[in-house]
Write a structure and sequence with these properties.
The complex is a heterodimer of chains A (about 450) and B (about 350).
Chain A lengths: L2 H40 L2 H35 L1 H34 L6 H30 L5 E3 L2 E3 L3 H5 L4 H29 L4 H36 L1 H7 L11 E3 L2 E3 L4 E3 L2 E3 L2 H7 L20 H30 L8 H9 L3 H15 L4 E3 L3 E2 H4 L6 H28 L1 H4 L8
Antiparallel strand pairs in A: 1-2, 3-6, 4-5, 7-8
Helix pairs in contact in A: 1-2, 1-4, 1-6, 1-12, 1-14, 2-3, 2-7, 2-14, 3-4, 4-6, 6-7, 6-11, 6-12, 7-8, 7-10, 8-10, 10-12
Chain B lengths: L1 H30 L3 H15 L3 H18 L1 H10 L1 H23 L6 H28 L10 H6 L5 H23 L5 H31 L4 H6 L2 H23 L3 H23 L2 E4 L5 E3 L7 H30 L8
Antiparallel strand pairs in B: 1-2
Helix pairs in contact in B: 1-2, 1-3, 1-6, 1-8, 1-13, 3-4, 3-13, 5-6, 6-8, 8-9, 8-12, 11-12
Classes of the chains: A mainly alpha (about 450), B mainly alpha (about 350).
C-alpha cells in the first residue's frame, strides 16, 4: 500500500465510521420526540421508558459522532492540504453554518438529556425536537459541501487559479439538493431498520414484549416510509449524475459502450480489460429510459471518457448494485408492513414479519456505506470533479500508511466498545426500567 | 469584515482555552487526586460538566472552521508541518470524549469503569499537552517549509524543549481552571478545602511551568520576553494578570465570592493570551528564517471572508442566548460558599 492509497483509505474509513454515527444522531431524536410526545399525551409510562432508553443510546452515539466529526475537520487538512488550500474558502460556507447547527445540537442535547423534571415538560420536549432538526440541518450542510466536490460551482477556474469565488453559489451547487435528499431519506431508512430490527429480535425472544413492541412500531413506520420514498429520490439522483458526471454513471452501471437503447445491467462481474460484463442480467433500453425517458437515446458509456479520467469500474458497480439491491429488499419489507397495518392486522403478530425486520437490521447501513462508496469512488480520479485530481491534493508527508493502520485500529476498537455498550443497554432494559408490570 | 472574523477566531480560541480547558482540567484534577477522594471528585465533576461538555468543545471546531475557510494557507501549513502532534491530539480528543460518555452510560457498573477512568484521565492530560505543543510550535520559528527530510520537516518542527514546556504549562493552566471552577460545585466544607488546595497547587504549577517556559525560550533563542514585554499592551496585560493572581490568592484564603474567583481566573488566562497574540498580530504562524503567515496577508478572497463573517454573526445570534441559558440552568444552584 502506498501513501496515496493509505490517505484515501484513511479518509474513507473515517467518513465511513462517522456516517453511521451521524445518521443515528440525526434520526434518533425524531424517534425519541415521538415516544416522548406519546408519554406527555397518554401518561403511559412505557413511552417515558422508551424515550429514556433511546436517549442513552443517543448519548453514546452522539459523543462518538461528535469526536469522529472533529477528527474529520482536521483530517481534511492533514491528508488533503492542497485541496483545502483552494477549496476551503469556496466550499467553506456550509461548514461555517454547520458549526452553528452542530453547536445548537450540542446545547439542545444538554438540555434534553439532563433536563428531565427540571424544565416545563413541553419546553423539554421541544429541546429534543431541536436536537433532531439541527442534526438534520448539519447533515444537509455537510452533504452540500460534498456535493460541491461532485459539482463544483461558485468560482472561475482560470489558468489554475480559483477566481471570483462565491461561497453562496458554491453551497447551492447543482448537486446539493438531490444528494442531501437521498442522504436524509437514507439516514431515516437505515436508522429505522436498525432500531426496528433490534426491537423485533427482542420481541421474538419474548423479552419485555410490550416495551419492545411499542418501540418497534415507532421505528418501523419511519423506516418503511423512508424505504418507500427512497427509490424516487434515487431516480432524481441518477438523472442528476448522468448529466453532471457521466463517467460515474457509466461506472455505476458498468456501461462500457455508448449505443442506442442502452441496456441496464443487473449484477454481473465487470471485466474492464475486455470492456464487458460477465454473468449480468441485461435489460435492453431500460438505462436509456431511466436516464432520458425513452427507450432509444443512447447513454454515454465509458468509451466516451478518456482512460485516465475513468473511475474504478468494478468497485463502483458492485457498491451500486449492493445499494440498489438492499434498497429493493427494504422496499419490499415496507410494502408488507404497510399491508399489515392497513389491511391485514393479523400479520402484525406473525413471526415471519418480525423475522424479516431482524434480517434487515444491518441492511440500511450497508446500503448507506455502499452508496457513499459509489459517490466517492465514482468521482475518482478527481477530488474536485474535472478541476483537481485527488493525487495532486494529498499531503507531502511520508508514512501515511502507519497513520492509516493506527486509525484503523482505533476505529475498530471504538466500534467494538460501542457495540458492547449497546448490547449492555439492551440487556439491562428490564433491570433499569420497571417494565414487567406494564401489561396493557 | 476581516476584523469580525479575526475577533471571532480569537474569541473561539480563548473560549476553548477557558471552557474546554476547564473541561480537560477535570480529568487532570482526577489524575492528581488520591485514590480515596477520586470517586467524590469524579461525581462532583460529572454533575458540573456533563450537560455542557459537548458545547465546550465546539469552540475548537469553530476555530478550525474559521481557519480553513478564511485562512487556508495558515490551516494547511499547520496541518502539514504539525501533522504528528495534531494526530496525537485528535486521538486524545477521541479517547477522552468517548471514555467520558461511556463511563456514564455503561448500563453495567463493573471493572470496565476502571478502563474508562484510566483512558479519561490520561487523555485529559495528553490532549491539552499537545494543544500547547502545537500552539508553541506555530510561533517558535521551527516550521521550515523548505525542509525536505522527514525529521526536519515533520518532527523538529514541534519536538523541542520550548514546545514541551508550553505543553506542560497548558496542562497546569487547565488543571487550575478546573480546580477554580469546581470549588463552587461541592457542598461540604471538607471537599471544598480539598479543591481550594488543588487550585493553589495547580496555580503554583502554572507559575513554575511559566517560569520554565521563559528559561527554555531564552536558551533556545526565542525572544519570548520581548514578545510579552516589548510593548505597552503586553506589559499592561501581564501586570494585570499578576495583580489578579495576588487578589485571587487573597480571596481563596478569605473565602471570597466564588463568582469573583472564577472571573479572576478567567481574566488571568485572557490577559496571558492577549499579551502573547497581540504582539505578533496580525501574524499567527512564525516560521524558520523570520517568515510568517499573517491574518491580513494570507486571508482568503474578500467574498469568502464576508460570507464567513456573516455566518459567524448569524451563528452567534442563535448560539449565544441558548448557551447562556444552558449554563445558567445547570449552574443556578451552585457558586455559593454557604448553602
Amino acid at each position: 500500500m502506498n501513501d496515496f492509497i493509505a490517505a484515501r483509505s484513511q479518509m474513507g474509513l473515517s467518513l465511513g465510521f462517522h456516517i453511521v454515527f451521524s445518521c443515528i444522531g440525526m434520526v434518533m431524536p425524531f424517534f425519541m420526540a415521538v415516544a416522548h410526545f406519546y408519554w406527555l399525551r397518554t401518561n403511559n409510562i412505557v413511552y417515558k421508558n422508551i424515550t429514556k432508553a433511546w436517549s442513552k443510546g443517543v448519548a453514546i452515539f452522539f459523543a462518538t459522532g461528535a469526536v469522529s466529526g472533529t477528527v474529520l475537520s482536521f483530517e481534511l487538512g492533514l491528508l488533503w492540504p492542497e485541496f483545502m488550500k483552494h477549496a476551503g474558502p469556496i466550499f467553506g460556507m456550509p461548514f461555517s453554518l454547520e458549526g452553528t447547527a452542530f453547536f445548537i445540537e450540542a446545547i439542545a442535547l444538554g438540555f434534553f438529556l439532563y433536563g428531565w423534571d427540571r424544565f416545563n415538560k413541553w419546553f423539554h420536549w421541544i429541546t429534543g425536537v431541536v436536537v433532531g432538526i439541527s442534526g438534520l440541518v448539519s447533515g444537509i450542510l455537510v452533504v452540500a459541501a460534498n456535493a460541491w466536490m461532485n459539482s463544483p460551482a461558485g468560482f472561475d477556474f482560470v489558468n489554475g487559479q480559483y477566481l471570483n469565488i462565491d461561497p453562496i453559489k458554491a453551497m447551492f451547487n447543482d448537486a446539493w439538493f438531490s444528494q442531501a435528499l437521498h442522504m436524509c431519506i437514507a439516514a431515516f431508512s437505515a436508522t429505522g431498520f436498525a432500531v426496528a430490527g433490534i426491537h423485533a429480535l427482542m420481541i421474538l425472544k419474548k423479552q419485555n414484549v410490550y416495551f419492545h413492541t411499542q418501540s418497534f412500531r415507532i421505528a418501523a413506520v419511519f423506516a418503511c416510509v423512508a424505504a418507500l420514498l427512497q427509490p424516487l429520490s434515487g431516480d432524481i439522483s441518477a438523472k442528476d449524475v448522468s448529466k453532471r458526471q457521466p463517467a460515474k454513471l457509466a461506472a455505476m452501471e458498468a456501461h462500457f459502450h455508448t449505443e442506442p437503447a442502452s441496456s441496464l445491467v443487473i449484477g454481473g462481474i465487470p471485466d474492464v480489460e475486455a470492456q464487458k460484463v460477465n454473468y449480468g442480467l441485461q435489460i435492453p433500453g431500460l438505462l436509456s429510459l431511466m436516464v432520458h425517458g425513452d427507450f432509444k437515446t443512447p447513454v454515454d458509456g465509458l468509451d466516451k471518457i478518456p482512460v485516465e479520467n475513468q473511475p474504478p469500474v468494478s468497485i463502483t458497480h458492485y457498491a451500486f448494485q449492493i445499494m440498489v439491491g438492499l434498497g429493493m429488499v427494504m422496499l419490499l419489507i415496507a410494502v408488507c408492513y404497510f399491508i399489515a397495518i392497513l389491511k391485514k392486522k393479523s400479520w402484525l403478530s406473525r413471526q415471519w414479519l418480525l423475522r424479516m425486520f431482524v434480517i434487515a437490521t444491518p441492511m440500511g447501513f450497508i446500503a448507506v456505506e455502499a452508496g457513499w462508496t459509489v459517490t466517492e469512488v465514482g468521482r475518482q480520479p478527481w477530488i474536485i470533479n474535472g478541476i483537481m485530481r485527488t493525487a495532486d491534493a494529498v499531503t507531502p508527508m511520508p508514512g501515511i500508511v502507519y497513520s492509516f493502520y493506527i486509525f484503523t485500529a482505533m476505529y475498530i476498537s471504538l466500534s467494538l466498545i460501542v457495540t458492547f455498550l449497546l448490547y449492555r443497554q439492551i440487556k439491562m432494559v428490564d433491570k433499569i426500567y420497571d417494565v414487567k408490570n406494564q401489561a396493557v | 469584515m476581516i476584523y469580525v472574523v479575526i475577533v471571532y477566531l480569537w474569541a473561539a480560541i480563548l473560549l476553548y482555552i477557558l471552557l474546554g480547558g476547564a473541561d480537560f482540567g477535570a480529568g487532570i484534577i482526577e489524575l492528581f487526586t488520591s485514590e480515596k477522594n477520586k470517586q467524590h471528585t469524579r461525581t462532583t465533576m460529572y454533575k458540573a460538566i456533563a450537560p455542557i461538555w459537548e458545547a465546550n468543545h465546539m469552540w475548537l471546531i469553530i476555530a478550525i472552521v474559521v481557519l480553513f475557510v478564511g485562512f487556508p494557507d495558515i490551516y494547511t501549513t499547520i496541518s502539514t508541518h504539525l501533522h504528528i502532534p495534531l494526530v496525537i491530539m485528535l486521538f486524545g480528543i477521541i479517547a477522552r470524549g468517548t471514555a467520558f460518555t461511556f463511563r456514564n452510560y455503561d448500563a453495567v457498573i463493573d471493572n470496565m469503569q476502571k478502563v474508562y477512568n484510566k483512558i479519561f484521565v490520561y487523555s485529559s492530560f495528553i490532549t491539552p499537552f499537545f494543544l500547547g505543543v502545537i500552539a508553541a510550535s506555530a510561533v517558535s520559528g521551527r516550521i521550515d517549509p523548505d525542509a525536505h527530510d522527514f525529521l526536519s520537516a515533520y518532527v523538529f518542527s514541534w519536538l523541542n524543549w520550548f514546545s514541551v514546556a508550553v505543553g506542560f504549562f497548558t496542562v497546569a493552566i487547565c488543571g487550575f481552571l478546573a480546580a477554580i471552577f469546581i470549588i463552587g460545585e461541592t457542598e461540604d466544607e471538607h471537599n471544598r478545602k480539598r479543591f481550594i488546595r488543588k487550585a493553589k497547587q495547580m496555580n503554583i504549577a502554572a507559575v513554575v511551568f511559566g517560569a520554565i517556559v521563559f528559561l527554555v525560550a531564552h536558551s533556545e533563542g526565542i525572544p519570548l520576553d520581548n514578545w510579552l514585554f516589548g510593548n505597552a499592551v503586553g506589559i499592561i496585560a501581564i501586570t494585570a494578570a499578576s495583580l489578579s493572581l495576588v487578589l485571587l490568592w487573597y480571596l481563596l484564603l478569605k473565602k471570597g465570592k466564588v463568582i469573583i474567583i472564577r472571573v479572576l481566573a478567567g481574566f488571568q488566562v485572557t490577559m496571558i493570551l492577549l499579551a502573547i497574540t497581540l504582539r505578533h498580530y496580525p501574524n499567527i504562524v512564525i516560521m524558520k528564517g523570520g517568515r510568517y503567515l499573517s491574518l491580513m496577508e494570507h486571508a482568503g478572497q474578500d467574498k469568502a471572508i464576508y460570507s464567513l463573517g456573516m455566518a459567524l454573526l448569524l451563528g452567534s445570534i442563535l448560539i449565544l442566548p441558548a448557551l447562556f441559558y444552558l449554563l445558567y440552568s445547570f449552574n443556578k444552584n451552585t457558586g455559593k460558599w454557604h448553602e
